[in-house]
TrEMBL record:
The chain crosses the membrane at residues 1-15. It comes from the Bacteria. The chain holds residues 315 to 618 of 618 of the full protein. Residues 55-289 form the ABC transporter domain. This is ABC transporter ATP-binding protein/permease. It is found in: Cell membrane.
């Protein structure tokens, strides 16, 4: 009886382990499934390792479902090493631009080029190698903090992981936990806040060191100190990189080389912060509104 009990008990543990691994795998496949919308062309070549990493959208139109067009004739360029920020109401198509650049989907009209090559003509692997994404909602694996950061560059040693964590200002938080970099995170481990998760994603991206960066700002508001810190970290991560920033707060975009204002899948205004303010259009209205909301909040805090 005892002999039978032990293996069964062991099997129970094993079963739970396997079941959890399958759940994790399932999640991963769901993510991969989403990425498998497009296939490499026969004979597709990788992007070159060294290039002038510009990004160009030329007359791009796109629909997830044929009956509902999302982007209409969108054209813009991010010269190598520059930052373009996209603002606009929820649902205007901002994140769709990022998904298309990463080639989760193919455009129906127009073209998207990286380093002058149509993304449909090169291997998906090389496109994804060239791009680092800091998403709105970072997927953390049920594994250690170290694994989650090193995911940006498998095989990176502890020293390199720690350097990236320091640069993303998450090191002291990690060091303050009893198990440090061995701390398990994710659903069954330490729960990280939105800001901490974004920092893990920034550290991952710093490790990967890709020439192109997509930053999809979290919609959920962080407290303003955290928000400013993340913005500063992002700014240093984006230095000399070609960056597409999807912004939900205008304070993020002030320094961008160009700001695109989107509405209903169209770019309705473009320019620098100063140019758009001077224009007195939609961006200037959004800015004035945000300033007054912040002003009211400040007045409330200081009791005016
Ligand atoms: P937010 O600021 O809320 O993140 P957004 O400007 O980034 O919004 P997108 O996520 O690009 O907007 O979505 C644009 C439109 O495309 C929305 O109407 C959305 O419902 C639709 N959409 C997004 N993803 C899909 C999908 N996988 N299938 C069908 N429609 C989608």
């Amino acid at each position: 009886m005892i002999q039978l009990y032990i293996p069964l008990n062991f099997l129970g543990v094993l079963y739970r382990e396997i079941k959890q691994s399958l759940t994790d795998l399932e999640k991963m496949f769901t993510l991969m499934e989403r990425e498998r919308e497009v296939e490499d062309k026969a004979g597709a070549q990788p992007l070159p390792e060294e290039a002038d990493w510009s990004v160009k959208f030329e007359h791009v139109s796109f629909a997830y479902e044929p009956a509902r067009p999302i982007l209409h004739d969108v054209s813009f360029e991010i010269p190598a090493g520059k930052t373009v920020a996209v603002v606009g109401p929820s649902g205007s198509g901002k994140s769709t631009l990022a998904r298309l650049l990463y080639r989760f989907y193919d455009v129906q009209q127009g073209r998207i080029a990286i380093a002058g090559r149509d993304v449909r003509d090169v291997t998906q692997g090389s496109v994804r190698q060239a791009i680092g994404i800091v998403p709105q909602d970072t997927v953390l694996f049920n594994d250690t903090v170290e694994y989650n950061i090193a995911y940006g560059r498998p095989g990176a040693g502890r020293a390199v992981v720690e350097a990236a964590a320091r640069a993303a200002h998450i090191h002291s938080f990690i060091a303050s936990t009893p198990k440090g970099y061995e701390t398990m995170v994710g659903e069954r481990g330490l729960k990280l806040s939105g800001g901490e998760k974004q920092r893990v994603a920034i550290a991952r991206t710093l490790l990967k060191n890709p020439p192109i960066l997509i930053f999809d700002e979290a919609t959920s508001a962080l407290d303003s100190a955290n928000e400013r810190a993340i913005q500063a970290e992002l700014k240093s991560a984006a230095q000399n990189k070609t960056a597409l920033v999807i912004a939900h707060r205008l304070s993020t975009v002030v320094d961008a080389h160009q700001i695109l204002v989107m509405e209903l899948g169209r770019i309705i205004e473009r320019g620098t912060h100063q140019e758009l303010l001077a224009r007195g259009g939609r961006y200037a209205d959004m800015w004035a509104l945000q300033q007054s909301v912040e002003g009211e909040a400040l007045a409330e805090v200081i009791g005016m």
